[in-house]
Amino acid sequence: MVSRVTDDYERMAIAGCEAICEPAFWAGFDRASAQGFYDYFRQITEYEPKRAARFGIQHYCWLCINPKEAEDMKLAEEVMDIIPQFLDRPGVLGIGEIGLNKNSRNELRIFEKHVQIAQDHNQLILVHTPHLEDKLKGTRLIVDALKNFPGVDPSRVIIDHVEEHTIDHVLDQGFWAGITLYPESKATPARAIDMFESRQGERIWMNSACDWGVSDPLAVPKTMQTMRKRGWSDAMVRKVAWENPATFMRQSGKFPL
Q1: How confident is the model at residue 214 (pLDDT cuts 50, 70, 90)?
Q2: Strands of the chain, DSSP E
Q3: What is the pTM of this model?
Protein backbone atom coordinates (compact mmCIF):
# COMPACT_ATOMS: atom_id res chain seq x y z
CA MET A 1 0.00 0.00 0.00
CA VAL A 2 2.99 2.33 0.04
CA SER A 3 2.18 3.18 -3.58
CA ARG A 4 -1.44 4.11 -2.79
CA VAL A 5 -3.06 7.27 -1.47
CA THR A 6 -4.84 7.34 1.88
CA ASP A 7 -8.20 7.53 0.10
CA ASP A 8 -7.68 3.91 -0.95
CA TYR A 9 -7.63 2.82 2.70
CA GLU A 10 -10.94 4.61 3.22
CA ARG A 11 -12.48 2.97 0.15
CA MET A 12 -11.30 -0.46 1.29
CA ALA A 13 -12.73 0.06 4.76
CA ILE A 14 -16.10 1.07 3.30
CA ALA A 15 -16.01 -2.10 1.15
CA GLY A 16 -15.60 -4.22 4.31
CA CYS A 17 -11.85 -4.83 4.32
CA GLU A 18 -10.62 -5.78 7.80
CA ALA A 19 -6.97 -6.63 7.10
CA ILE A 20 -4.27 -5.95 4.52
CA CYS A 21 -1.35 -8.23 3.71
CA GLU A 22 1.39 -6.24 1.93
CA PRO A 23 4.46 -7.94 0.44
CA ALA A 24 7.81 -6.19 0.14
CA PHE A 25 8.11 -5.25 -3.51
CA TRP A 26 9.73 -2.98 -6.07
CA ALA A 27 9.64 0.75 -5.27
CA GLY A 28 9.08 1.79 -8.89
CA PHE A 29 12.86 2.23 -9.22
CA ASP A 30 15.95 0.26 -8.22
CA ARG A 31 17.18 1.27 -4.77
CA ALA A 32 20.85 2.20 -4.51
CA SER A 33 21.77 0.85 -1.09
CA ALA A 34 20.79 -1.46 1.74
CA GLN A 35 19.98 1.65 3.79
CA GLY A 36 17.14 2.35 1.37
CA PHE A 37 15.69 -1.06 2.17
CA TYR A 38 16.18 -0.51 5.88
CA ASP A 39 14.05 2.64 5.65
CA TYR A 40 11.50 0.80 3.51
CA PHE A 41 11.22 -2.03 6.04
CA ARG A 42 10.62 0.57 8.74
CA GLN A 43 7.91 2.12 6.56
CA ILE A 44 5.94 -1.10 6.09
CA THR A 45 6.40 -2.31 9.68
CA GLU A 46 5.89 1.00 11.50
CA TYR A 47 4.18 3.69 9.41
CA GLU A 48 1.79 1.73 7.16
CA PRO A 49 0.16 -0.11 10.11
CA LYS A 50 -0.64 3.28 11.66
CA ARG A 51 -2.03 4.63 8.38
CA ALA A 52 -4.27 1.57 7.98
CA ALA A 53 -5.39 1.68 11.62
CA ARG A 54 -6.92 5.12 11.08
CA PHE A 55 -9.59 3.32 9.04
CA GLY A 56 -9.99 0.27 11.26
CA ILE A 57 -7.84 -1.96 9.05
CA GLN A 58 -5.12 -4.22 10.43
CA HIS A 59 -1.92 -4.12 8.38
CA TYR A 60 0.44 -7.07 7.88
CA CYS A 61 3.52 -7.38 5.69
CA TRP A 62 6.28 -9.60 4.32
CA LEU A 63 9.99 -8.81 4.01
CA CYS A 64 12.58 -9.46 1.29
CA ILE A 65 14.54 -7.93 -1.54
CA ASN A 66 12.26 -8.44 -4.52
CA PRO A 67 13.37 -10.37 -7.64
CA LYS A 68 13.60 -7.24 -9.82
CA GLU A 69 16.51 -6.00 -7.66
CA ALA A 70 18.11 -9.39 -6.99
CA GLU A 71 20.60 -9.27 -9.89
CA ASP A 72 22.95 -7.17 -7.76
CA MET A 73 24.22 -9.97 -5.53
CA LYS A 74 26.22 -7.71 -3.20
CA LEU A 75 23.24 -5.44 -2.56
CA ALA A 76 20.90 -8.41 -2.14
CA GLU A 77 23.13 -10.03 0.46
CA GLU A 78 23.44 -6.75 2.38
CA VAL A 79 19.65 -6.42 2.42
CA MET A 80 19.13 -10.02 3.53
CA ASP A 81 21.49 -9.37 6.45
CA ILE A 82 19.05 -6.68 7.62
CA ILE A 83 15.87 -8.75 7.40
CA PRO A 84 16.18 -10.84 10.59
CA GLN A 85 16.12 -7.78 12.85
CA PHE A 86 12.59 -6.99 11.58
CA LEU A 87 11.10 -10.50 11.73
CA ASP A 88 9.89 -10.13 15.31
CA ARG A 89 7.77 -7.07 14.48
CA PRO A 90 4.12 -7.85 15.27
CA GLY A 91 2.81 -7.41 11.74
CA VAL A 92 5.49 -9.37 9.87
CA LEU A 93 4.06 -12.63 8.53
CA GLY A 94 7.13 -14.03 6.80
CA ILE A 95 9.54 -13.78 3.86
CA GLY A 96 8.20 -12.45 0.56
CA GLU A 97 7.51 -11.83 -2.10
CA ILE A 98 10.62 -13.64 -3.20
CA GLY A 99 10.95 -15.50 -6.48
CA LEU A 100 12.05 -14.91 -10.05
CA ASN A 101 11.68 -12.06 -12.52
CA LYS A 102 13.80 -13.07 -15.53
CA ASN A 103 14.63 -16.61 -14.35
CA SER A 104 18.31 -15.72 -14.05
CA ARG A 105 20.96 -17.59 -12.05
CA ASN A 106 21.49 -14.66 -9.70
CA GLU A 107 17.76 -14.40 -9.00
CA LEU A 108 17.63 -18.12 -8.25
CA ARG A 109 20.59 -17.89 -5.86
CA ILE A 110 18.98 -15.00 -3.97
CA PHE A 111 15.67 -16.86 -3.91
CA GLU A 112 17.38 -19.84 -2.29
CA LYS A 113 19.11 -17.61 0.27
CA HIS A 114 15.74 -16.12 1.20
CA VAL A 115 14.30 -19.62 1.64
CA GLN A 116 17.16 -20.43 3.97
CA ILE A 117 16.39 -17.33 6.05
CA ALA A 118 12.76 -18.45 6.26
CA GLN A 119 13.85 -21.90 7.43
CA ASP A 120 16.31 -20.52 9.95
CA HIS A 121 13.64 -18.30 11.50
CA ASN A 122 10.56 -20.54 11.01
CA GLN A 123 8.84 -18.08 8.67
CA LEU A 124 6.06 -18.47 6.12
CA ILE A 125 7.07 -17.90 2.48
CA LEU A 126 5.31 -15.84 -0.20
CA VAL A 127 6.61 -16.41 -3.74
CA HIS A 128 6.42 -14.22 -6.85
CA THR A 129 6.31 -15.98 -10.21
CA PRO A 130 7.54 -14.23 -13.40
CA HIS A 131 5.31 -12.71 -16.00
CA LEU A 132 3.97 -13.77 -19.37
CA GLU A 133 5.93 -16.29 -21.46
CA ASP A 134 8.44 -17.07 -18.69
CA LYS A 135 5.83 -17.91 -16.06
CA LEU A 136 5.64 -21.68 -16.55
CA LYS A 137 9.42 -22.08 -16.74
CA GLY A 138 9.89 -19.86 -13.69
CA THR A 139 7.20 -21.66 -11.72
CA ARG A 140 8.87 -25.01 -12.38
CA LEU A 141 12.27 -23.61 -11.35
CA ILE A 142 10.75 -22.25 -8.13
CA VAL A 143 8.98 -25.50 -7.25
CA ASP A 144 12.12 -27.54 -7.94
CA ALA A 145 14.23 -25.18 -5.81
CA LEU A 146 11.77 -25.36 -2.90
CA LYS A 147 11.74 -29.14 -3.07
CA ASN A 148 15.53 -29.14 -2.68
CA PHE A 149 15.02 -27.84 0.87
CA PRO A 150 14.01 -30.90 2.95
CA GLY A 151 12.70 -28.69 5.73
CA VAL A 152 10.28 -26.69 3.57
CA ASP A 153 6.66 -27.60 4.28
CA PRO A 154 4.61 -26.83 1.14
CA SER A 155 1.60 -25.98 3.32
CA ARG A 156 3.61 -23.00 4.64
CA VAL A 157 4.41 -21.64 1.16
CA ILE A 158 2.11 -19.68 -1.12
CA ILE A 159 3.13 -19.31 -4.78
CA ASP A 160 1.46 -16.18 -6.13
CA HIS A 161 0.39 -14.89 -9.56
CA VAL A 162 -0.69 -18.34 -10.79
CA GLU A 163 -2.56 -18.55 -14.06
CA GLU A 164 -4.40 -21.29 -15.90
CA HIS A 165 -1.20 -22.97 -17.13
CA THR A 166 0.56 -22.96 -13.73
CA ILE A 167 -2.08 -23.42 -11.04
CA ASP A 168 -2.27 -27.22 -11.30
CA HIS A 169 1.51 -27.60 -11.04
CA VAL A 170 1.57 -25.51 -7.85
CA LEU A 171 -1.38 -27.17 -6.13
CA ASP A 172 -0.44 -30.70 -7.16
CA GLN A 173 2.91 -30.25 -5.38
CA GLY A 174 1.12 -29.35 -2.13
CA PHE A 175 1.72 -25.58 -2.14
CA TRP A 176 -0.85 -22.84 -1.73
CA ALA A 177 -1.68 -20.81 -4.85
CA GLY A 178 -2.36 -17.09 -5.08
CA ILE A 179 -4.36 -15.45 -7.87
CA THR A 180 -3.55 -11.78 -8.41
CA LEU A 181 -6.37 -9.64 -9.76
CA TYR A 182 -5.41 -6.98 -12.31
CA PRO A 183 -7.63 -4.96 -14.66
CA GLU A 184 -5.23 -5.58 -17.58
CA SER A 185 -2.96 -8.55 -16.77
CA LYS A 186 -2.37 -11.49 -14.42
CA ALA A 187 -6.05 -12.51 -13.93
CA THR A 188 -9.42 -10.87 -14.44
CA PRO A 189 -12.28 -11.69 -12.03
CA ALA A 190 -13.83 -14.06 -14.57
CA ARG A 191 -10.58 -15.97 -15.10
CA ALA A 192 -9.94 -16.12 -11.37
CA ILE A 193 -13.39 -17.56 -10.70
CA ASP A 194 -12.89 -20.16 -13.45
CA MET A 195 -9.68 -21.27 -11.72
CA PHE A 196 -11.38 -21.44 -8.34
CA GLU A 197 -14.17 -23.55 -9.79
CA SER A 198 -11.78 -25.92 -11.57
CA ARG A 199 -10.06 -26.69 -8.24
CA GLN A 200 -13.03 -26.31 -5.89
CA GLY A 201 -11.34 -23.42 -4.09
CA GLU A 202 -8.60 -25.78 -2.88
CA ARG A 203 -5.70 -24.00 -1.04
CA ILE A 204 -6.19 -20.87 -3.17
CA TRP A 205 -6.56 -17.25 -2.25
CA MET A 206 -7.02 -14.14 -4.37
CA ASN A 207 -5.44 -10.74 -3.89
CA SER A 208 -5.86 -7.23 -5.23
CA ALA A 209 -2.84 -5.75 -6.96
CA CYS A 210 -2.03 -2.36 -5.40
CA ASP A 211 1.15 -1.30 -7.15
CA TRP A 212 2.58 1.44 -9.36
CA GLY A 213 0.71 0.47 -12.51
CA VAL A 214 -2.98 0.25 -13.32
CA SER A 215 -4.44 -1.70 -10.39
CA ASP A 216 -7.50 -1.74 -8.17
CA PRO A 217 -7.43 -2.13 -4.36
CA LEU A 218 -11.10 -3.13 -4.54
CA ALA A 219 -10.54 -6.00 -6.97
CA VAL A 220 -11.26 -8.64 -4.31
CA PRO A 221 -14.67 -7.28 -3.18
CA LYS A 222 -15.61 -6.71 -6.83
CA THR A 223 -14.71 -10.33 -7.63
CA MET A 224 -16.76 -11.48 -4.64
CA GLN A 225 -19.76 -9.71 -6.16
CA THR A 226 -19.12 -11.42 -9.50
CA MET A 227 -19.00 -14.78 -7.70
CA ARG A 228 -22.46 -14.15 -6.25
CA LYS A 229 -23.78 -13.25 -9.69
CA ARG A 230 -22.44 -16.60 -10.96
CA GLY A 231 -24.43 -18.42 -8.30
CA TRP A 232 -21.85 -18.90 -5.57
CA SER A 233 -23.20 -19.27 -2.05
CA ASP A 234 -22.19 -16.78 0.63
CA ALA A 235 -20.36 -19.60 2.41
CA MET A 236 -18.23 -20.40 -0.63
CA VAL A 237 -17.47 -16.74 -1.28
CA ARG A 238 -16.36 -16.35 2.35
CA LYS A 239 -14.20 -19.47 2.10
CA VAL A 240 -12.06 -18.21 -0.77
CA ALA A 241 -12.09 -14.50 0.15
CA TRP A 242 -11.47 -14.84 3.88
CA GLU A 243 -11.13 -18.33 5.32
CA ASN A 244 -8.46 -19.54 2.89
CA PRO A 245 -6.04 -16.62 3.35
CA ALA A 246 -6.74 -16.50 7.08
CA THR A 247 -6.01 -20.22 7.41
CA PHE A 248 -2.66 -19.76 5.69
CA MET A 249 -1.62 -16.61 7.56
CA ARG A 250 -2.60 -17.95 10.99
CA GLN A 251 0.32 -20.36 10.65
CA SER A 252 2.56 -17.34 11.33
CA GLY A 253 1.21 -17.05 14.88
CA LYS A 254 0.65 -13.34 14.25
CA PHE A 255 -2.70 -13.31 12.44
CA PRO A 256 -5.42 -13.63 15.10
CA LEU A 257 -8.44 -12.71 12.96
Answers
A1: confident
A2: 19-22, 58-63, 92-99, 124-128, 157-159, 176-181, 204-208
A3: 0.95
